[in-house]
Amino acid sequence: MLIKEIKELRSTIKSWKREGLSVGFVPTMGALHEGHQSLIKRAVEENDKVVVSVFVNPTQFGPNEDFDSYPRDINKDLEICLSAGANVVFNPEPSEMYYGDKSTSVSVSKLTDVLCGAKRPGHFDGVCLVVSKLLNIVTPDKAYFGEKDAQQVAVIKRMVRDLNIDVEIVACPIIREEDGLAKSSRNTYLSAEERKAALVLSRSLEIAKDTLKNGERDARKIKEFILNELNKEPLAKIDYVEIIDSDSLASVDIIERNILIPIAVFIGKTRLIDNFTFEIYTY
Amino acid sequence: MLIKEIKELRSTIKSWKREGLSVGFVPTMGALHEGHQSLIKRAVEENDKVVVSVFVNPTQFGPNEDFDSYPRDINKDLEICLSAGANVVFNPEPSEMYYGDKSTSVSVSKLTDVLCGAKRPGHFDGVCLVVSKLLNIVTPDKAYFGEKDAQQVAVIKRMVRDLNIDVEIVACPIIREEDGLAKSSRNTYLSAEERKAALVLSRSLEIAKDTLKNGERDARKIKEFILNELNKEPLAKIDYVEIIDSDSLASVDIIERNILIPIAVFIGKTRLIDNFTFEIYTY
């Protein structure tokens, strides 16, 4: 079922809750791919009812970013959601979500000073605002986010903790193409040549992973391996490569605890991100 | 019943909700007086169950304000709440409410640029943070606030609207002492002489009200009447006197719509506030 109004969504969810049913929620910006599908399927497994929101949120795009060109195809998205088992697709207009004189902001500091937060000023304020609104509208038991946006997961978890929002945030693994490229709605921007060049992201992370498995614990050296690999690709322009603590997102010199290695790379004009978490006690 | 932990409060409220009971909520900083009692009684009339929070919220006090000296007497407060018909008093420690590494903020801009927001930097950020947390913990159907803190009511209403928090904000009339002084927990700071001097707040507002009833519509003139009256009192030091639009809190020159006249005055070291709303179509 497609719902466009907050009021109708709320009343649908309230009727579920009166029956004692649990609600899972997958917030998306649409242009759904197998990554989103994996979130929806997991939500369907773990909850009685599942809501997917499809909303290209204007407040999380910078003035020179791709808000206008971001791919939109609600009919295709609706089909993907329903075939994955979602019960409701919430697809509001921007005017349904934001008043002209909106003046409330939700911000997470510190965690957003680095990575995409540093490179995309205001981005996470937009994410926190829309996610807090959506969580208040849907009031889910569990909400599902992809680990591809690792910083987003950390920021949302912090926001939910600090604001006592009564929801469990479930982070789900990155889904990749067969050749290793992390699935992303923005992959559709890539030309054939760029699509090939984009493999440098996952390849450089694989090298880092192998080096870590072989026992290297000097973050500076690991970073050098990644940078070297990325620099071999002429179409790639590095935005950031970091080695950070998984929880605090603080920079790490010697790797002694679980770390996150997130990278952001422009392939032509398209900015792609990828990452992996290295759990120190696993190996 | 006194509850100190979020977990216990949530589970109590969830058991009420499972029975289909409605929940009213009165957030306070304790030091309860007849003003708070009137909120609790109204909540008891309008809801099946009522929660009162008693929490002197550190994040809404400035560094040179009265956080340490703010009156605290949980036993007396508990008695007042229960005798007014409340079911639960939530009295958390600051460490139950705030993590050491808290980094999420909730802000309302514009509405907080004036009045107490301008005079007490950060105050409303603290209010928005604690109220959004408490609303997420209690998930009430209705929450009750006193009109004495008129700007607070406007800010909370805006926050609730902008963040889609599913609660009705109920604003309740100012309760006064017999001689006209608005009830306030901070009245206990006043010496006998100051207590007498404090009457200048309500007296100056009464003069403004009479002038408005007599047809004066020039905000500058009304303001002058108030300032003249306040200036007659040697113990009074004016913090602000404003004539503003009830909704936008924007300054008004010619009074053509509903207005709010809020004042803040130091009596000795104690900062007191008072206000009234003039409804243009009432007279």
TrEMBL record, chains A, B:
<dbReference type="Pfam" id="PF02569">
    <property type="entry name" value="Pantoate_ligase"/>
</dbReference>
<comment type="function">
    <text>Catalyzes the condensation of pantoate with beta-alanine in an ATP-dependent reaction via a pantoyl-adenylate intermediate.</text>
</comment>
<feature type="binding site">
    <location>
        <position position="175"/>
    </location>
    <ligand>
        <name>ATP</name>
    </ligand>
</feature>
<dbReference type="GO" id="GO:0005829">
    <property type="term" value="C:cytosol"/>
</dbReference>
<keyword id="KW-0436">Ligase</keyword>
<feature type="binding site">
    <location>
        <begin position="183"/>
        <end position="186"/>
    </location>
    <ligand>
        <name>ATP</name>
    </ligand>
</feature>
<keyword id="KW-0963">Cytoplasm</keyword>
<protein>
    <recommendedName>
        <fullName>Pantothenate synthetase</fullName>
        <ecNumber>6.3.2.1</ecNumber>
    </recommendedName>
</protein>
<comment type="pathway">
    <text>Cofactor biosynthesis; (R)-pantothenate biosynthesis; (R)-pantothenate from (R)-pantoate and beta-alanine: step 1/1.</text>
</comment>
<dbReference type="InterPro" id="IPR004821">
    <property type="entry name" value="Cyt_trans-like"/>
</dbReference>
<feature type="binding site">
    <location>
        <position position="152"/>
    </location>
    <ligand>
        <name>(R)-pantoate</name>
    </ligand>
</feature>
<keyword id="KW-0547">Nucleotide-binding</keyword>
<dbReference type="InterPro" id="IPR042176">
    <property type="entry name" value="Pantoate_ligase_C"/>
</dbReference>
<feature type="active site" description="Proton donor">
    <location>
        <position position="36"/>
    </location>
</feature>
<keyword id="KW-0067">ATP-binding</keyword>
<comment type="similarity">
    <text>Belongs to the pantothenate synthetase family.</text>
</comment>
<feature type="binding site">
    <location>
        <begin position="146"/>
        <end position="149"/>
    </location>
    <ligand>
        <name>ATP</name>
    </ligand>
</feature>
<dbReference type="InterPro" id="IPR003721">
    <property type="entry name" value="Pantoate_ligase"/>
</dbReference>
<dbReference type="InterPro" id="IPR014729">
    <property type="entry name" value="Rossmann-like_a/b/a_fold"/>
</dbReference>
<dbReference type="GO" id="GO:0004592">
    <property type="term" value="F:pantoate-beta-alanine ligase activity"/>
</dbReference>
<dbReference type="GO" id="GO:0015940">
    <property type="term" value="P:pantothenate biosynthetic process"/>
</dbReference>
<keyword id="KW-0566">Pantothenate biosynthesis</keyword>
<feature type="binding site">
    <location>
        <position position="60"/>
    </location>
    <ligand>
        <name>beta-alanine</name>
    </ligand>
</feature>
<dbReference type="GO" id="GO:0005524">
    <property type="term" value="F:ATP binding"/>
</dbReference>
<feature type="binding site">
    <location>
        <begin position="29"/>
        <end position="36"/>
    </location>
    <ligand>
        <name>ATP</name>
    </ligand>
</feature>
<comment type="subunit">
    <text>Homodimer.</text>
</comment>
<feature type="binding site">
    <location>
        <position position="60"/>
    </location>
    <ligand>
        <name>(R)-pantoate</name>
    </ligand>
</feature>
